[in-house]
Amino acid sequence: MTKSVLIEKVSEKLEGLSKKQTEVIIETIFESVKDSLAQGGKVEIRGFGNFRLRNRNARKARNPKTGASVEVPPKKVPYFKVGKELREMVNRNLQ
To answer: Whole domain around residue 90: which residue ranges?
Structure first.
């Protein structure tokens, strides 16, 4: 599902809002999640999952093209942990 499809689905459910208004709402949600993670926080959406940051340690890597050793600095990466309800729903559809 793309963002435009998501906007269209939400717009269909909310009859009083135009697609442009729905797009502003969706963009605001995504920007809020990004801002929270950029500030080192976490986002918890009950029944869906959690967005958090994980620390990656510094390490040595190899450039596959030249074979030269490269130092990779430590960094933080976004991580999503699925919620129990969503995990159960996905697994229920597999059976």
So the answer is: 41-95
For 53, how many CA atoms within 13 A lie in the half-sphere containing its CB? 16
What does the alpha-carbon distance between residue 89 and residue 86 come to, in Å, rounded to a whole number?
Answer: 5
Within 10 Å of residue 38's Cβ, how many Cβ atoms? Answer: 11
Is residue 46 located within the same domain as residue 89? yes
> Residue 78's beta-bridge partner residues?
53
8-state DSSP, 94: H
- Express each pLDDT in 18-77 by its tens digit: 899 999 999 999 999 999 999 999 999 998 999 999 999 999 999 999 999 999 999 999
Residues 54 and 89 in one domain: yes
The pair of structure tokens assigned to 51 is 């967005």
Residue 46 and residue 34 in one domain: no
Do residues 66 and 35 both lie within one domain?
no
